[in-house]
Structure formats: C-alpha cells, structure tokens
Amino acid sequence: MSTLVTLFVILPLAAAFLIPVIGRVINGFQRTITALIFIFLSILSVYILINVNPNIYTYKIGGWEPVNGIPIAIYFVLDGLSTFMLVVINLIAAFAALYSIPYIKRFTAENNYYALLCIMVGGMNGVVLSGDLFNLYVFLEIAVIASYALVAFGVEKKELEASFKYQILGGIASILILFGIGMLYWNTKSLNIADVSGILKNTENNKAYLVFTQALLITGFGLKAALFPFHAWLPDAHSSAPSPVSTMLSGVLIKVVGIYRITRLFFNMFEISVEISTIIIVLGVISMVFGVFLAVGQWDIKRLLAYHSISQMGYVIIGLGMGMLILANNGSKSVAALSIFGGLFHLINHAVFKGLLFMNAGAIEFKTGTRNLKEMGGLSESMPLTYSTSLGASLAISGIPPFNGFFSKLIIILAAIKAEFYLLAFLAVLVSIITLASFMKLQKFAFFNKAKLSPGREINEVPFFMCFSMVALAILCLGLSLLIFPGVREIIIDPAVDVLMNTGGYSPDIME
Amino acid sequence: MTLYILCFTVFLVGIYGILTQRNMIKIIIGLSFMEFSVFLFLALIGYIEGGAAPILSKNFESGNFVDPLPQAMVLIAIVIALAANSMLLTMAVKLYRKYGTFDIRKINQLKG
After folding, report:
1. pLDDT digit string (tens) for A256-301?
2. Position with higher pLDDT, A484 vs A146
3. From A135, which residue of chain B is nearest by alpha-carbon distance?
4. Which of A8, A33, A135, A297 could potentially form a cystine with A130 if both were Cys, beta carbons 3.0 to 4.6 Å apart?
5. How far is B62 from chain A (nearest CA, A)?
6. Model confidence over A74-105: pLDDT tens digits?
C-alpha cells in the first residue's frame, strides 16, 4: 500500500518530462496523458480514502530505516488528513485537465502548458504527503514556480505584471519559510516533522525562539494562503491566469501550500497554544470580512471571484482556528471536533464551487472575449448550461440550501455559537449575506440583462469537455451536501478530523 | 554571534531593497540578498568551531565534524533559488519589452 503513495508524485512528474518530448511527435499525447493521469490518481485517492483510512502509512524514501529511533530517510506520510487533501487536489485537477482540452487550443505552446500543470499537481501532492520539513520546502517551490509560469501563460501586459507581483511576494514567503525551517533545525537537529514535534515537546524551549519561529512560519504560509494583510497578489494572479489554472490556483493551491501546511504544523508539530490560535482566528476573521467588501465593488468577473476566495478562505481558517482555540483551552472536545469538521467541509466545498465558478467565467470569456460584467448580458439564453451550473455554484457559495456551501457554513456558525463566540457567528452570517448580494449582481449582469454585445456575433454553448467538467462539478456541489449525514461523514471527513483532534498523537504514531 | 548578526543585517538590507526600490532589477537583487542571507544562516548553523569536512574516507577517525545536512540543504536551496531568479528575470525582460521601462510605478495596469 505504502509504495502506491509514491505514484502521486512520480506519475505527474514523469508525465511532465515526457510531454515536451513525445508531445512534439504525437499530436494529442499531451492532452490525453494529462487527463488520464489525473483521472487515475483521483480514482486511486478515492480508493485509499474509502478502503484504507484511518490507518497511517509511512513510506521511507530509499528504504533507510531509523537508527536508534532517529529517522534518516525522507518520510511520506499518508494519514486521514493527507488522504482527504489528495482527493481534493486530484479530483479538481482531473476536471481542470478535461476543461483545458478545448480551452487551451487557442494558445500556442500547448505542450508547455500541460507539462507545467503536471509539475504543479505533482508538487502539490508532494507538499501534502511530505513528512519532512525540507522536502516540504522543495515540493512547495516545485508547485509555486510552475504556478508562476502558468499565471504568466498569456504573456500579455497584465499577465506579466500579475506574475511579477506574485513572484516577488511568493519569493519572500518561500524565504521566510526556509528561514523558519532553518530555525527549527538549529534547535532540534532534525527535519522530520514527527521527530521535531517529539523533541519540541520533551525539551525546554526558549520562549522567544519559539515565538520567532512560529511568526516566520505563519507569515510565510499566510503569504502563500493569501490571508488578509498578505493578500495583495491573489486577485491579480488568479484573475490573469488562464481559467483552468485559476481553478487550480483558487481551488487547490492556496489551500494546499497555505492552509493545509498551517494546520499540519500548528496542530501536529508545535504544541497548540492560545496565542497562536487567536492569531489564526483574527487573520481568518479579517480576511473573511475585508475580502467580501473588496469583492462587492468589482466589475471584472474573475477579480470578483478571486476576492471571494480570500473571504471564503477566512471561513476555513476560522473553523480550524476555533477548533484549535477550544482544544488549547481544554474546552469541549465535541465542539472542537464540530468546528474542525466545519472547516474541512468548507475547504472541499470551496474547492468544488470556486473551481466551477472560475470555469464558468472561463466559458464566458471563451465565447464573448470579455471579463467585464458591464459588457455582458443576456447569456442565459445562448449559454444555458453555463448559466445553470453558474447559478448552482453561486447559490452554493452564498450558502443557500440544499447546496453544499449552506451546510458547511451552518456547521461553522453552529460551532461558533456553541463555543460562545457570538461576534464570530454574527460576522459569518453577515459575510454570507453580502456574498449572496455580490453573486446576485454577477448573475444579473452576466446572464439576465439585455445582450450588449455587437449583434453580428453568434454566441453558443462551449465545447463538450468544458460542459462536461462544469456539469460534473455542479453535480458534486449538490452531492457533497451528503457529507453532512453521519454514515458518509464517518468515511470521508472524520479520519481527517481525528488526525487534527489527536494533536499530540501525531509524533508517536509515525515514529514507532 | 557577530556572524549571525551580520547575516541578519544582510536579510534586512534585502527587505529594505524590496520595499524602497522602484527598479525591477533592483527589487530582484534585494530578493537575492534575502535568499543568500538565509543560505548563510543555514551554513552557519551546521558549523562547529574547528570542525573538519564531513567526508567518510578509509582512514576514518571519529572526530569533530561539521554538520553536513545544512550544507546539502543549502545546495538544493541555491538550485531552487536559481530557478526562481531566472524566472523573475525573464519576467522583467518581457515586461521591459512590453512597457519600455523597468520602473514599477509605470507598470500599473492592474488596480482595485
């Protein structure tokens, strides 16, 4: 079983090197192989999720066994949380790859696009699986450097500017993360996350040293996750990228390299503390509120969606941060579990509906050639599938039942009320209402008003593969509501919640 | 200790460069300063006063070796930084071709 884990990294990276070579000779190789690999990996990850959870598997690269209890090899760790994240990454990647087939044809250098997409997904899978701090940094750089190139894929003025901004801020973030890793190594003389966790627990630590390290890591990963004070690059980068790439960036990348790593390090590696969890909650609340206010005034459809990503990430962070705060205060375990469940549930929901919304925006841009809401109108007649899927996704993100967004927001708000954070619950409801208003605007201007485009232009539905991805994700938007029911929830999300609830158990589980 | 302080000073110089400079190339130089200060830091934490190079040879004697792991880390990190920097410089050159300037105040199509 544990050797299968390496496929998640090997297959995309191997494809990335084969595509520029073979794709030049055989036309269509690049499209087929990318889609097939991502579909295979998503099936594999779902299989792992259903069959082998909640066991923990470790794969030691090179087969080096620990000597005297000191780990030598680089570890790949597959537990409930990483399996859950693998499902999110590979599922969205598979749909994005299918969506790319017609969408990318109008660009030159198709081979480079698919190769970069494969590298990005391989890097993200590595970030999720890696149980080693430095290996984590390497995979993180693989993923983000590919994303820098993908953001600039249009090679026009705006794309280049966005990519430059993204690279400077991303570069600073990477340096801060490397600095933090160096600080940890300095003190513990180990890079294995489980080992570091054990050493930090068993030895006396200088308080100032720990605070400095945690500040470095939270700033670094916060920059990658685009939490509020560090969000400046996100709207530019996510709106300038080609649409399937925006789907990957907004749907998966900021979660994997930002939020997943923050939760993993601060739940499982450092000892949870009230201060850190308060900082995380405050960052989450600020991103949630400011993100939505900045989104309301936008007229560029992809920029609007990008600002909503900041806001929705706030919900995820609040859910996880609240759980951490309750655990640190020795509060009720069940409320903490509910809160973390809400956060993770919203994470997968956001990946699905934000991915779908970016695909809709891409479909509109594909046919009309504009992203400005003021220039659109009346598309509900000419693009019925895009319209209906976009309506579903808009209702899901605004939290209207029976779509998935409603249930995850409801759980986060319920957890906030049970934990007596009334202000938080109130703000979450308020932001949800403003989100609804913002998406009403999107629906009205894009699909309902009178058509404003020049009359000679024929607008019809997008090609089959784009429709297929959109419809499939729309069905998932409805289907994921089922996760609220105990039977389904126990299989899919509960193993991930258990990993985070069992904060101190991570280290012994892996080191044994 | 002095070495660590000097190393951190280089880091601060890099941040200063990124925050104050208007020229894209100078910003990239600032970023490189930050990168190299962290590399220096990594090399420093593996250093032991009077330690020998950690090479396993035939006439191996247990002795005072410097820690080889941070050196391996620095090598990998330098390669990664090379990739990131070459990417950044490519963007800067492309931007110069489109806008005819390296001044970031004049490259401001994205707002809001």
Report:
1. 988 999 998 898 888 888 888 999 999 999 999 999 998 888 888 8
2. A146
3. B73
4. A135
5. 18
6. 888 888 888 999 999 999 999 999 999 999 88
pLDDT, residue A149, reads 92
Eight-state DSSP code of residue A411: H
CATH number of B2-47+66-99: 1.10.287.3510
| Residues A240, B110: C-beta atoms closer than 8 Å | yes
* Total count of domains within chain A: 1
**DSSP reduced 3-state for A75:** strand
**From CA A130, how far away is CA A8, in angstroms rounded?**
11
Residue A70 neighbours by CB under 8 Å, 6+ apart: A190, A195
B31, B75, B97, B110: best to mutate for the A interface, most A CBs within 10 A: B110
Q: What residues form DSSP beta bridges with A60?
A: A75
**With an 8 Å Cβ cutoff, are B94 and A160 in contact?**
yes
Residue B60's pLDDT is 65
d(CA B55, CA B40): 21
CA distances B95 to A248, A367, A410, Å, are 25, 28, 46
Domain ranges of chain B: 2-47+66-99
Question: Can you tell me which residue has the tokens 């990957």?
Answer: A248
Tell me whether 0.90 is exceeded by the ipTM.
Answer: yes
What pTM did the predictor assign?
0.93
d(CA A296, CA A301): 11
Q: Which domain holds residue A251?
A: 4-511
